[in-house]
Design brief:
about 450 residues, mainly alpha, two-stranded antiparallel sheet, 20 helices, 2 strands, about 70% helix, globular, transport, membrane
């Protein structure tokens, strides 16, 4: 597809259907792998069988509610929705917190925290502009960097063939067979990303995963048993793991929600600038935040993880020059259709761990790189370097050595070992307390 197909700087205009459908598919391809990966990781942390029906269900909900949340953004309901071409998807920012909660307290607690966190996130829309001063590039960059650094070990474990303790003790863990598959994904994804253009380049991770999938299949690593058993139409279950309240989990998810809301403000602003050459209006920023929170709360009720705006899709708007929100509405409808077909979820769930590992090595590395990119806006004087040092040391250090705070109360311990929460808290407090340097 050509990189520029026309001038559609008004969100309410629509390209001809022959262009609009491929453009919508392009948005789906750019975010598809990133959208389903968090659910796979959190399901694994919760101890769900890899490729089992429960994991397939969580994957289905990730696709279904990414589509529904996208429609909240593009079509809108009253004040909800920016009505800009913003693609929603499952957020990586919450993976660290939710994986930890799911592993220690169960998916019921994790999803309940998502519902409550989504409601709080929704309420942030009323005064999101007044909170932006708490999250300058120094704070948001640190939080995003901490998320990426926390997740990279998970990527390496998957690439080597496992994530759970018993899998890492297996003889095959770290074998050449596993690494050959993971490296196939990485090499193909990089090749496609940097040596092709347009739709192919935007779908680089997805194409890399398909290549790794083929190599894994050739080595006898793929089992299609679950695909054959999966039904053609999904059944949606409210509160599939019950409603279990944990204050620590809610606080941790809410802290990440605030950061996610600030990211959405940035994405809304970037979309308006890239597609129309203007600043986003206050109503658009508020509507984008409302849609974020509503999408997260509704998804949580049915087993979906928190949703947020996807920055890579902002890049597509800038690349194509197509500002039409209706193009992204088509993308949302495609995701809803995928979410209603369990066969698709079963195919994704049949993906061997090394295939997924190769993909998330790139994805998680890019999350960390995005954090570094935000930090390039920060002047590296002694004050800011101290804030970076202490925030990362506290956040990542306590996560790596959780027994260091084993005597803290449960709520506080959950927060202190979540990586993201202590990094954010330290960065915010130190940025407010330490005097600026000339």
């Amino acid at each position: 597809m050509a990189e520029t197909t026309g001038t559609y700087s008004d969100p309410n205009t629509t390209p001809p259907l022959a262009q609009a459908v491929p453009l919508g598919l392009q948005h789906v391809l750019a975010m598809f792998a990133s959208n389903v990966t968090p659910s796979i990781i959190v399901a694994g942390a919760a101890g769900l069988a890899f490729g089992g029906p429960e994991q397939i269900y969580l994957i289905q909900m990730a696709m279904l509610f990414a589509g529904i949340a996208t429609l909240f953004q593009t079509v809108g309901i009253g004040p909800v929705g920016a009505r800009l071409p913003i693609m929603q998807g499952t957020s990586f920012a919450f993976v660290g917190v939710l994986a930890g909660v799911a592993a220690t307290q169960g998916l019921g607690v994790a999803l309940t925290a998502c519902i409550i966190g989504g409601v709080i996130h929704f309420c942030l829309g009323a005064f999101i502009g007044k909170l932006r001063w708490l999250f300058p590039p120094l704070v948001t960059g640190l939080v995003i960097l901490a998320i990426g650094l926390y997740l990279i070990p998970v990527a390496i474990k998957y690439a080597a063939g496992g994530a759970a303790k018993f899998q890492m003790e297996a003889e095959s863990f770290g074998s050449l067979m596993h690494w050959s598959v993971a490296l196939t994904v990485v090499i193909v994804a990089l090749g496609v990303k940097f040596f092709t253009k347009g739709m192919l380049s935007n779908a680089a991770i997805l194409i890399g995963l398909i290549a790794g999938y083929v190599v894994a299949y050739a080595q006898g690593m793929v089992n299609f048993g679950a695909v054959a058993k999966a039904s053609w139409v999904t059944s949606i279950t409210p509160l599939p793991y019950g409603f279990e309240f944990s204050l620590g989990a809610v606080i941790a998810v809410t802290l990440v929600s605030i950061v996610s809301a600030i990211e959405t403000v940035g994405d809304a602003s970037a979309t308006a600038k890239a597609g129309a050459g203007r600043d986003a209006t206050d109503a658009e920023i508020q509507g984008a935040t409302y849609a974020d929170g509503l999408g997260t709360a509704v998804a949580g009720v049915f087993g979906g993880l928190p949703n947020t705006s996807f920055s890579q899709n902002v890049g597509i708007v800038g690349m194509t020059g197509i500002m039409s929100r209706h193009v992204v509405t088509i993308a949302g409808v495609i995701m809803i259709i995928c979410g209603l077909l369990p066969k698709i979820g079963a195919v994704i769930a049949s993906m061997p761990l090394p295939v997924l590992g190769g993909g998330v090595i790139v994805m998680f590395g890019m999350v960390a790189s995005a954090g570094l990119n935000v930090l390039t806006e920060v002047k590296m004087n002694r004050r800011n370097m101290v804030i970076i040092a202490i925030s990362l040391a506290a956040g990542l250090g306590l996560n790596l050595v959780p027994t260091a705070v084993q005597y803290l109360p449960g709520v506080v311990k959950t927060l202190m070992t979540s990586a993201v929460a202590p990094t954010a808290l330290c960065a915010i407090v130190l940025n407010l307390v330490l005097p600026e340097e000339d």
